[in-house]
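User: Predict the complex with adenosine-5'-diphosphate.
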Amino acid sequence: MAASYLLALDQGTTSTRAILFDSEGTARSAAQVELPQIFPRPGWVEHDPEEIWRAAVSVIRRALANAKVTAGEVAAIGITNQRETTILWDRASGKPIHNAIVWQDRRTAEWCRTMARKVGDKELGKRTGLLFDAYFSGSKIAWLLDNVAGARAAADKGRLAFGTVDSFLLWRLTGGKVHATDATNASRTMLFNLKTQDWDDTLLKEFKIPRGILPEVRDSAADYGEAQAAHAGAAIAIRGIAGDQHAATVGQACFEPGMIKSTYGTGCFVVLNTGTKRVQSKNRLLTTLAYRLKGKPTYALEGSIFVSGAAIQWLRDGLKIIAKAGDSEALAAKLTGTGGVFLVPAFTGLGAPYWDPDARAAILGLTRDSGIAEIVRAALEAVAYQTRDLMVAMQEDGAKPAALRVDGGMAVNNWGMQFLADQLAMPVERPVVTETTALGAAYLAGLGVGVFASPADIARQWKRERQFKPAMKAAERNTLYAGWQEAVARVRSR
Ligand code: ADP
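Assistant: Here is the predicted structure with adenosine-5'-diphosphate placed in the model:
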C-alpha cells in the first residue's frame, strides 16, 4: 500500500501531541504528553527544550503504535507549534544554551518599551505587521544574547542557532541537517519583513541580532528534509510547518479572502484571511501571514484575546462555583439574562484591540439577587463580547466576513456559540473535526508531499457539524454590548 497517512506533531504550551490522520482528514490515533511550565520569577515562563524533544519523539512513536501503522506508511509529517517561544542552541552539540523562553514571558517588557521609543510601533508595523510587545520572539533572542554568558560571542562566530519550537524540533528530527522555519512562524519574531518575505536587515541591526543565527524561511508546505529512521523506525518526510493559529486557519479551510476562524481554548485567536492584501490595521490588530504556499504569501489580520476558556477554568478552579467547564452551559441557559452583571476577564491585561497590560479583571453590576448562574453566564457572554470587539475592529479595517468558523475546547458550548452568533449578528459554524490545529499541520504536509493537489482539495473535506444562526433583536444585542463597553471602560488602566 502506498504511504498515505499524515502525521501531525502539535507542540503546544501545555502539551505535546501527535495525531495520525488518513488522507480523508479523519484522525486514526493520537498520543499526548503534558508539558510543565517553569516559572523562575514572577512574569517569567520557560520550558525545558530537552523535555519538549523527548515528548515529541515519544508521541510520534505512540501515535503510530496505537494505530498499528508503521513509519513507512506515513507519507509525511507536518509540524505545528506554540508560536513565538524562543530557543537558542549550539550548532555543534545541538544543546540549547538556556531554557526556552515562552510566548507568555514578560521579562522583555521594558526592553520593548525602550525599542518602541527608539524605532517606533509604526515603523515596526510597516515592516513586520506587529507592535512592540514582549509576546514576540525578537526581544527574547536579544535577551538571551545579552544575558547568557558567552552567547553573543558564540553567535557572532556563527556557533549558535535560533529557532521557534518548530525549528528546534526540525533540527533535532533531521539530525542537525536542516535549520529552517516556515514563513508564518518567522512572521511572529518582529524580524521578518512581510513585504520582502525575508529577514529585515534594518531591524536585525536595531535588535543587534546577527543574521547567521536565523533559520532559512520556507513555505508552509515545503521540503523540510526527513525525520531520521532512528526516531520512528524508518525515515519520514517532513513536508509542512505552520504556527498553531495559522495551522488552524488551514484546518478550517479558510482559503478565500474574507473567510475567518476563531479558536476558543485558554485564550481566543481570530484570524481573517485577507488574500494577497497586506492590510495595515488602524485598530491595533496584527498583520500576519495566513500561510505561504508556492512562494505566494496569503496575508491575514489577527486579533488575540488572552482569556476566554481560562475564565471558565477560573470559575471552576479558583472560585469553585462550578464542578466542570461543561456545567456552565446549563447554568447560563436557565436564565433570561445576567440582570446587568458583566465579567471582564482581564486577568493578564487586555489583548487586542485594547493592548492594555495593566488592566485587571472585574465583575460589575452585582445586585442582591445576583448569583452563581449570573456570574457564570457573564463569563460566557464575555467571550462573545470580546469577539465582537475584534469583529468590529476588523470591519472598520475593511473586512466583510459572512460567517465565523469556530473550534477549540470551548466551541462545544452550544449556548455560548448561540450567544456569539447573536452578538455578531452573523452565522457561527462548527466543523465536524474541531482538532483544526493538528489537522491543518497534516493538510500542509499533505500539500507538501502531493497527497493533496491544492487548497481546493482540502476545502472539499471541511464539513459543518452545526450552524448557529443569529436570532437576537438588534435593540437587545446592542444594549447588551453597550453595557459590555461600559464595563471595559471601567477596568482599563488608561
Ligand atoms: P488549550 O488548547 O488552550 O489548552 P482547549 O482548546 O483544550 O485549550 O480548551 C480548553 C478550554 O476550554 C478550557 O479553558 C476550558 O475552561 C474551556 N472549556 C472546555 N469545555 C467547555 C465548555 N463546555 N464550556 C465552556 N468552556 C469550556
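The chain has a mean pLDDT of 94.
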